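In the current project phase, we have settled on a layout for protein records. One protein thus recorded is set out beneath this paragraph:
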Amino acid sequence: MKAKYIMLLLIVVVTVSCSSQRKVQTSRSNLKKIENEITGKNWNLVEMNGSAVKPDGSEPYIRFNRVDNSVSGNTGCNSFFGNFVLSEENKIKFSPLASTKIACMGKNPEEEYLNALSKTESYSIGANELIFKDISGNFVLKFQAVFSK
């Protein structure tokens, strides 16, 4: 039974990752600037819906890959992955995100974190801080940059 569940999860992952990606409608120079601002580093989740995030397990984070417009991260317990699309005026959209389904112990922001990502419409960036906002412009997530070695 467990093997069937894992196989089904792998099929979903492959389907999501192979789906066609929309082209970004931003000029190349603006897109490159935007990509350079958010890619190449992990963004640790520090605040969600106005409250500080203090996980019991792993540090929740998100990472953007400019090569294939993929996004991956960790909820504090499970890993997640999908695609993202950037457009002008700091708009960002995520494909439906897939995640592993390990049983999580203790305090974990997983469900709230994934829901907030699905509601994200725009972002602002500055001073190693990334903020996601919903369609109404309300703050939903705040991240702090962690640069790769």
Notes: The longest strand covers residues 79-87. The CA atoms of residues 133 and 139 lie 5 Å apart. The longest helix spans residues 2-18.
